[in-house]
Amino acid sequence: MLNLAQDIEVLARFGRALADPIRCRLLLALRAAPAYPSDLADAIGISRTRLSNHLACLRDCGLVVAVPEGRRTRYELADPRLGHALDDLRQAVVAVAEDSTCPDTEEKGCC
Question: Sorted alphabetically, which Pfam families does this protein's record hold (predicted)?
C-alpha cells in the first residue's frame, strides 16, 4: 500500500501528464490500442520529434512503456487500469463555468 507522500506523487505525475493536450491525445490513443511512434505522429498530426518529447514525458511519468519489437518500438499504457482511469476522468462532471480558464495553463513542462 502506498503512503500519502507516494499517493500525492503519483497523482501529481498523472496531473502533469494530462496538463498538455497532446499528451492527453496520446494517452487516449494508447488507451484504444498500443501503437508505433510513426502511426501516433500521423494520427495526431505532429512531427516525430515533437511526439518523441511527449512520449518521453509520459514514460518519465510512468504512464506509458516502450516495448521493443525487433527494430521498432511499440508504445502502450503501463497498466491497463490507466485506461479505466482515463475513462472515469472523461465521464466525471467538472464544475467549471464556460468562460473560466485554469490558472496553470501557461505552465509547460513535464514530470
Answer: HTH_5 (PF01022)
| Cα distance between the two ends of the chain | 22
Domain spans in the chain, listed from the N-terminal domain onward: 4-91
DSSP 62-95: TSEEEEEETTEEEEEESSHHHHHHHHHHHHS---
* 49-59 exposure pattern, b = at least 16 Cβ within 10 A, e = fewer: eebeebbebbb
| pLDDT tens for each residue of 71-91 | 999 999 999 999 999 999 888
**Any idea which architecture 4-91 has in CATH?**
Orthogonal Bundle (1.10)
Q: Enter the DSSP assignment of 106.
A: T
What count of Cα atoms within 13 Å lies in the side-chain half-sphere of residue 37? 18
